[in-house]
Design goal:
Layout (H helix, E strand, L loop, with lengths): L8 E7 L3 E5 L19 H11 L7 E5 L4 E5 L3 E9 L3 E2 L2 E2 L4 E5 L4 E4 L4 E8 L36 E4 L23 E6 L8 H9 L2 E7 L3 E5 L13 E2 L4 E3 L7 E3 L6 E2 L3 E5 L1 H7 L7 E6 L2 H13 L3
Parallel strand pairs: 12-20
Antiparallel strand pairs: 1-4, 1-11, 2-3, 3-10, 4-9, 5-8, 5-10, 6-7, 6-9, 12-19, 13-14, 13-20, 14-17, 15-18, 16-17, 16-19
InterPro entries: CT_A_B, Cyclophilin-like_dom_sf, PxpC
Keywords: ATP-binding, Hydrolase, Nucleotide-binding, Transferase
Pfam families: CT_A_B
Length: 314
């Protein structure tokens, strides 16, 4: 499928968009040091982008938020792959749809504009973007100034270069049965109830799982605020505890905050529970103003769904 080569290929950033970061599967085993997980906000789309090129599924790729005119120029002939959101990408003016690999010639320019569907696109390169690992990951974490293209967590800037040493001999497209775009559609977010859910009032729990929630514009890689009915918790002060991906905290204003890839490592607000990893990936693709609904699920069902999701990449 893919063979290693000593030849270095690269993309040059001609124009920087609002937020383009190098992300991989995440940084694990360091939360006891206060270092967050990071990694692709939509881990499902990252895996599909790498699958298209035959890469290791968690290889470093480019996470592109909104697009906003990000322009990349190929400095050599290569094959790239695109998955996730449709950001109206164009290659020398020709539209590119996500969900496939494509050939690029030296000098051609790849431009990302405004979202047509979803929020985050993932651009994979053969073998993964070749940058040094920091604490076991290449992922950029802007808040902690850690990792990424320059090692300081910053987004791409004009003049930066992304390089790699791999090669891809075939161009894949996602099969219809893959369900690769499932993270982009549907308003249901599966949530596994947590230890504090019994401290919320009955009316609050009814509203939490039966009322619509709007994705607020106060949303980033750290957390996504949901706006809707006010939730009331009878629990007083809490000792801070570890925060998993997708944790749904409810601060005193009663508006839930879903904690994402760049979340803090501990927190002291009561939690309804946590979104499943797949639901967290789906939320990462929601634009501000989009309406979602929380749907309670069991731990056993969540694990089975997660296993099926992982098996789809085989």
């Amino acid at each position: 499928m893919k063979e290693a080569t000593a030849q270095v290929a690269s993309l040059r950033v001609v124009q920087a968009g609002p937020l383009a970061l190098v992300e991989d599967g995440g940084r694990f085993g360091v939360r006891h040091l206060g270092v967050t997980q990071s990694g692709a906000a939509d881990w499902v789309s990252l895996r599909w982008a790498n699958w298209l090129l035959g890469n290791t599924l968690n290889s470093a790729a480019l996470e592109i938020v909104i697009g906003g005119g990000l322009t990349l120029e190929a400095e050599s002939d290569t094959t790239l792959a695109l998955a996730g959101a449709d950001l109206c990408a164009e290659l020398d003016g020709e539209p590119l749809e996500p969900g496939g690999g494509f050939r690029v010639k030296a000098g051609q320019r790849l431009v990302f504009r405004q979202p047509r569907n979803g929020l985050r696109a993932y651009l994979a390169v053969p073998g993964g973007i070749d940058i040094p690992e920091v604490l076991g990951s290449r992922s950029a974490t802007p808040r902690e100034r850690l990792g990424g293209h320059a090692g300081d967590g910053r987004p791409l800037q004009a003049g930066d270069r992304l390089s790699w040493r791999g090669s891809a001999d075939t161009v894949r497209r996602l099969p219809p049965s893959a369900g690769a775009s499932d993270t982009l559609w549907g308003d249901r977010l599966a949530l596994v109830p947590g230890a504090q859910i019994g401290h919320f009032s009955g009316p609050s729990l009814y509203r939490a799982f039966n009322a619509p929630w709007r994705v607020d514009d106060r949303a980033d890689r750290m957390g996504v605020r949901l706006v809707g009915p006010t939730l009331q918790c009878q629990l007083g002060s809490m000792v801070s505890e570890g925060i998993p991906l997708g944790a749904v905290q409810v601060p005193p204003d009663g508006q839930p905050i879903v904690l994402m890839s760049d979340r803090q490592t501990i927190g002291g607000y009561p939690r309804l529970g946590a979104l499943t990893p797949f639901a967290a990936a789906r939320l990462a693709q929601c634009l501000p103003g989009q309406v979602v609904r929380l749907e309670a699920t069991s731990r056993a069902h969540a694990l089975e769904t997660h296993r099926r999701c992982l098996a789809s990449f085989c």
